[in-house]
Structures are given as C-alpha cells and as structure tokens.
Amino acid sequence: MHLGNVPRPGTREARPVLYLDVDGVLNPEAPTGRFTEHTVGRLTVRIVADHGAWLRDLSTHYDLVWATTWEEHANQYIGPLLGLPPLPHVAFSTYTPHPGDPHTPLLQIPRMRKWAPILRHADGRPFAWLDDVIPWTIRRQALPHRRAIRLIRVEPAQGLTRRHVNSLDRWAAHLSRRTRRGAPP
C-alpha cells in the first residue's frame, strides 16, 4: 500500500498540523465527567472545557485544522464552545478525487473518505490526526511514513483524553528534536 502521488508527509519543513475530528473526539458518545450539553439545531453536542484548554496548549506545537464532516460549521458551533479561534478546515464534501490519490478498496470508500483530502491538505507537512474512525487500510498506508504521520484513534464513547494529549506533546517534542538535528521528521 502506498500514498499514490500526494506529497509525502514530512518532505516539507514546517510546523506539524493537528487534524481534529469533532464527533467521537470532542463530542463523545457517552462521556463521563464535567461535560455540558449544547443544542445545535436538532443535535446535542457534549463539550468539556478541558478539551479547549488542551487544544490551546497543543496549538503552541501544531497548526490546528478541523478534519470533520462539520467542516466550516465547526468554527461556528464547536470552536466557540471550546474557546478556540476560527481554524482552517479540510473540505470533504466538495473534495473531488485526484488521479494519484491513495488506493482505496471499493468497500472501504465511505470509511476512508477523509484520507486523500487530509494528505492533500497537509501538502508534505508532518501531521497528527485525531479521529474515532481510522481504518486499518489507512494505518497500513501511513506505516512507512510513521516518522511524519501520527494517527491517534480516539474511543468514541469517551472522546479525547489527557493520554492522547500527552502522546501528541511527546510526538511534537520528538519532531522538534529531529528538526534541530537536521534529520527528516
């Protein structure tokens, strides 16, 4: 499995990107703790202030980008609840497949719909991705690029935890050390 002809993650020296999903990550299915419920149209979202603080801290190491089917609406409905400034987003609904996108098995197209747009958006930058759905095929394709890609699957019932944030902090520090030594990410 390979990434097609998209720019290889880690081939551009730049701050890493942190791609953020909403549902199952920042809006868990069955959270415990101090989550508050908010109504967004006909939806109920569960948000905890800790997530906003953690993401603001992570923004010192990463460029935060929404990678959610909420797309630009995450800035209107989710970001303000977390105390985040408007963030760029990956456009999934308008993405047109490109020749050379990574190979996607036919039966996995719905589950892998985010992969090519994220790779194209990263444009060679190292990145981490928080999501509750990261199929095995994506993990296999990313494996040869593990120095420049950090895939973090979040349990959708619980959402983002301090353990995930600590892992991202360690990875950002590792990337920084490699960059200072002049090694590729």
List the main descriptive attributes of the protein structure presented here.
185 residues, four-stranded parallel beta sheet, two-stranded antiparallel sheet, 6 helices, 6 strands, globular
What does this structure look like?
This protein is α/β, with parallel strands linked by helices and 185 residues long. The chain has helices at 49-58, 73-77, 79-82, 115-122, 136-142, 162-181; strands at 17-20, 36-40, 43-47, 63-66, 127-131, 149-153. The protein is globular, with a radius of gyration of 16 Å. The mean pLDDT is 90.
Sheet having the most strands:
4 strands, parallel
Low-confidence stretches: none
* Secondary structure: helix percent: 25-40%
Helix and strand composition category = alpha/beta
Helix-strand pattern: EEEHEHHHEHEH
Arithmetic mean pLDDT: 90
Distance between the termini: 21 Å
Task: Give me the count of strands.
Answer: 6
Shape: globular
What value does the Rg take, in angstroms? 16 Å
State which percent range the strand residues make up. Answer: 15-25%
Count up the helices.
6
Q: How would you write the strand order of the largest sheet?
A: 4-1-5-6
Topology diagram in text:
Blueprint: E1 17-20, E2 36-40, E3 43-47, H1 49-58, E4 63-66, H2 73-77, H3 79-82, H4 115-122, E5 127-131, H5 136-142, E6 149-153, H6 162-181
Parallel strand pairs: 1-4, 1-5, 5-6
Antiparallel strand pairs: 2-3
Write a compact overview of the structure shown.
By secondary structure, the chain is an alpha/beta fold. It has six helices and six strands.
